[in-house]
Amino acid sequence: MLKAKIKSLAQEYKEEVIALRRHLHANPELSFQEFKTAEFVEAKLREIGITELEKKATTGWSALIKGKNPDKKVIALRADMDALPIVEANEVSYKSQNPGVMHACGHDAHTASLLGAAKILHGVKDQFEGTIKLIFQPGEELVPGGASLMIKDKVLENPRPNGIIGQHVMPFIPAGKVGFRPGIYMASTDEIYVTVKGKGGHGAMPETFIDPVLMASHMIVALQQIVSRVANPKIPSVLSFGRVEALGATNVIPNEVKIQGTFRTLDEEWRAEAHRRMLQIAHGIVEGMGGQLDFEIRKGYPFLKNDPELTARSIEAAKDYLGEENVLDLDIWMAAEDFAFYSQEIDGCFYRLGTRNEAKGIVSSVHTPTFDIEEDALEIGAGLLAWLAVSELSKA
After folding, report:
1. Burial of 354 (0-12, 13-18, 19+ CB in 10 A)
2. Staple 78 to which of 8, 135, 210, 220, CB 3.0 to 4.6 Å?
């Protein structure tokens, strides 16, 4: 009966959740600048009747929905609220009104879904035992990650959740379906900032300069052996350089070259060893060619692991709610998510909400100017979150 009630409420609130998403989409804010978004979330929670709220990490919120016997068990539900520095190309009524800022990763859908789930759960709180902690966090897109700051601000205390569940849109999965993966799912991520320093000069006089462009080129090529020849092939690893800036000209060798990149893997011990090897190789090449090197590795998010037992229970609950044919198995993904910080602290389950609709042309990947979602998926976004929470609370 509770499942039927949740489904009924998810359907009843669907248009409201869509409206919430459209408001958030039209008013995006960058990481750690989600001031108006946070005010909007607070207002909506209080409008629902949820009054046990705590401000966290400047623009984050936690809130409690207490059922019967609230101390029996606690489960947390998480949504992120920040947008990306992207100019939106969609011509829709809810297009971003903040130039150069766009909800291109679906965090508007995550926040709207959790607000919808909150309304559902508040309405049925006399029908479940335990407590549900809602977590609305800032800054998922920017190191050090809003999750890490929320944890430092004790979002996982008073009360401490027994587990945490989060969902993320997936444009490669059709709307109406969801995807799960127990165990290791997403990669760690580190940002690499390099300056190769030499001595500039006239391109026709190589004997007078120390070429940072040549040194940088050798270094980038050599560093690929970290993945191809040093890493255990059983441990997925990615090393990519996406920005190389050498401000010379056809016949002008610059004094320095600036490089930016990323390293990702699924093993923390190898991650630390790879950092050491990168520094060793880079310094050896650049200094061996007469240059100087600044090589900074900004450690980002850890790898994301889904607790096998919590995820298995969530998969069964999702099949019960949506039907077995609508619950998919996911492969590992080398993208990163700061939900990983939660999953390193307590049992976590991070799953994917399908938002693709090829008939409508809704097929663009996240982090692109044309990203959008099939909004019918928000009925599942809110309803399934609520059902997973109460299902987990019912387990010993």
Report:
1. buried
2. 135
